[in-house]
Amino acid sequence: MGVTPAQKVEAGDSTSLVTQVSPNWITTRLDFLVNWARSNSLWPMPFGTACCAIEFMATAASRFDLARFGMERMGYSPRQADVLICAGRLPFKLAPVIRRIYDQMPQPKWVISMGACASTGGIFDTYAMTQGIDTVVPVDVYVPGCPPRPEGLLYGILLLHKKIRGETMADEAVRQEPTLDPGSLMLPPEHVDELSEPFGNSVHQTRSA
Amino acid sequence: MNPSVEALRREFGDKIGRAVESCGDTFVYVERESAREVLAWLKDTSGQEYNYLIDVTAVEYRDPELPLEVVYLLFSLERKVQLCVKIALPKSEELLVDSVVPLWQGANWLEREVYDMFGITFRDHPDLRRILMWETYSEGHPLRKDFPLRGRLSRSEQVRRALHANPEAHYSMDELSIAEAFNDLPEDMRERLSRGERDAIPGLRGETENG
Ligand code: SF4
């Protein structure tokens, strides 16, 4: 199965005009406004598959309070969400599911990979587990930890805010998100193999055969 | 030792193999051919009444000479007694036992799990499909000792096949809450659901299962 190249987001004439004349005062002010609005109202799509989701719930609850960042509304419909937070390990059986959810989210969209399992497969270096969700969907921020404390996730969210604040309509490249073909690999197979190499302790795991 | 073992020996003679007691639990080995008969007797005979099937599972030992074992954990709700019945399956023979779904409906998914993880076939099972791995999974039966921990294929191939699996096809019609709405579904979805998705991955047709 072929690799989908990152396709250019269809840009209308007005966008290219903007690209030609920018950055200038108007576009940077507009960027500032748009990015301020976007980064302060990120609606999360919680994809909680395992123990990390418990810590995600703690982050959303009153003590840590995601609402401070305009995120109190969990978008359980991917069509009304901006940031996919994968909290927990992703078994192969869920790979087509998370891909479909990602595809259903409207642009612009971001992905946070929460925890060791979502980022690398963690301790589950096995036949059933994707070795990192970045083999299936593009990831913006990785939050390490098993599980990450709520402070860790909040820090990841703040990093994402920072990333969003740096986006500009003058630079189309930062807005380009690959249109993924259902069923096709997002990365070349060699990259998937390399990303899935044993990580950390799992090199020392006992293996039969 | 659980007195049921003596009763079993009186009833079935040499179809009952050795019995072991360990930590207060009794394990009794039964010949494969008469297993269902024995289990039915244990369930229905007064004085035995093992009417609750706690679990069906299987064991493969590290020693390759030892046979696989199918394990039935029984419990009598009336008498509050537990009994463990085992069937030894030598690896040289076909891994085949009689399904106990006719005795306990609850065995349905348990036996599917044993089939999925160990490749043991249950004769007369109403719906013997994989339950944990998806149906197009072709790398074998993961809990067998000869199965490499990370699977047989490269990671990229595993991801590719996983992405090709159709999540809707993991369930049979009666497991889906949309069963009643079946006739309202789009034509192609109805077709996919009714045939399941065995062999649906391009380039896999005709590939036999390992293990
Ligand atoms: S990283 Fe740790 S806490 Fe998070 S899903 Fe994996 S095992 Fe669970």
At a glance:
With 209 residues, chain A is an alpha/beta fold. Chain A contains seven helices and four strands, in the order ααβαβαβαβαα. In chain A, strand 2, helix 4 and strand 3 form a beta-alpha-beta unit.
Per DSSP E runs of 2 or more residues, the count of β-strands of chain B stands at 7
- CA-based shape of chain B: globular
The helix-and-strand class of chain A reads alpha/beta
**Beta-strand content of chain A:** 5-15%
CATH class of the domain at 1-132 in chain B: Alpha Beta
Which topology of the domain at 1-132 in chain B does CATH recognise? Beta Polymerase, domain 2
**Beta-strand residue fraction of chain B:** 15-25%
Taking the sheet with the most strands of chain B, its summary is:
5 strands, mixed
Low-confidence segments of chain B: 198-211
Tell the overall outline of chain A.
globular
Strands in their spatial order, largest beta sheet of chain B: 1-2-5-4-3
Query: Which spans of chain A of ≥5 residues are poorly predicted at pLDDT below 50?
Result: 1-12
Q: How widely separated are the two ends of chain B? A: 37 Å
CATH topology of the domain at 44-168 and 184-199 in chain A: Rossmann fold
Oligomeric composition of the shown chains: heterodimer
| Helix percentage of chain B | 10-25%
Helix- and strand-based class of chain B? Answer: alpha/beta
Largest sheet of chain A: 4 strands, parallel
Ends distance of chain A: 29 Å
Bound molecules: iron/sulfur cluster
Description:
- The complex is a heterodimer of chains A (about 210) and B (about 210).
- With about 210 residues, chain A is of the alpha/beta class.
- Chain A contains seven helices and four strands, in the order ααβαβαβαβαα.
- In chain A, strand 3, helix 5 and strand 4 form a beta-alpha-beta unit.
- The N terminus of chain A is likely disordered.
- Chain A has a domain of about 140 residues: Rossmann fold (3-Layer(aba) Sandwich).
- A four-stranded parallel sheet of chain A has the order 1-2-3-4.
- In chain A, helix 2 runs antiparallel to helix 6.
- The longest helix of chain A has 16 residues.
- Chain B is α/β, with parallel strands linked by helices and about 210 residues long.
- Chain B has a domain of about 130 residues: NADH:ubiquinone oxidoreductase Nqo5 subunit (Beta Polymerase, domain 2).
- In chain B, the strands form two sheets. In chain B, strands 1-2-5-4-3 form a five-stranded mixed sheet. Chain B has a two-stranded parallel ribbon with strand order 6-7.
- In chain B, a hairpin with an 8-residue loop joins strand 3 and strand 4.
- The longest helix of chain B has 12 residues.
- Chains A and B meet through helix 4 and helix 7 of A and helix 4 of B.
- Bound molecules: iron/sulfur cluster.
- The site of iron/sulfur cluster (SF4) has 11 residues of chain A, from helix 5.
